[in-house]
Amino acid sequence: MKNFLRFLFMAIIALTLANRAAFAAEDTKSLLSSGEAKFKAKNYSGAITDYTKALELNPKLAEAYLDRGFAKRSAGDIEGAKIDFKTSIDIDPTPKDAAAYYNRALAKSALGNNDGALSDYKRAADHGDTKAREWLKNNGYK
């Protein structure tokens, strides 16, 4: 009987933890969608709040850092955007369309870090970003 109760208790704990993880994943998706809608409506502070909440649930979500970086840049927080783009790259060094590299290059350029920007434009181009390739071509780089 003692072993049965121990097994039952462990099963209940496992189910509770699994349910919480599933809820957090669904809530993260909802927050990302909400942030995207707010960003499109130019409610940048609302989008930043939603992306931040999603990151509280899953701090390894590169997409949320990337999207929050877009929102911060649009809100005028270039330094904050640069940090979020860097974090996105740290989590996923080959982001889809190299968006984090390209956008971090824009942020570095706006902050006067031209060498850092050039490095990121090159990395974005290496990962297939056409805007970065165009920028490099227009500025005399291969």
What is the C-level CATH assignment? Answer: Mainly Alpha
Task: Please name the fourth-level CATH homologous superfamily.
Answer: Tetratricopeptide repeat domain
Poorly predicted spans: 17-24
SS class: mainly alpha
Amino- and carboxy-terminal Cα gap: 74 Å
Strand content: under 5%
The secondary-structure element order is HHHHHHH
Number of strands: 0
| Proportion in helices | over 70%
Account of the 3D structure:
The protein is mainly alpha-helical and 142 residues long. It has one domain (2-138): Tetratricopeptide repeat domain (Serine Threonine Protein Phosphatase 5, Tetratricopeptide repeat). Helices cover 80% and strands 0% of the residues. It is built from seven helices and no strands. The chain has helices at residues 2-40, 44-57, 62-74, 78-91, 99-110, 114-126, 130-138. The radius of gyration is 20 Å and the shape is globular. The N and C termini lie far apart (74 Å). The model is unreliable at 17-24 (pLDDT under 50).
Characterize this entry briefly.
By secondary structure, the protein is mostly helical. It has helices at 2-40, 44-57, 62-74, 78-91, 99-110, 114-126, 130-138.
Fold topology:
Layout: H1 2-40, H2 44-57, H3 62-74, H4 78-91, H5 99-110, H6 114-126, H7 130-138
Keywords, separated by commas or semicolons:
Serine Threonine Protein Phosphatase 5, Tetratricopeptide repeat, globular, 142 residues, mainly alpha, 0% strand, 7 helices
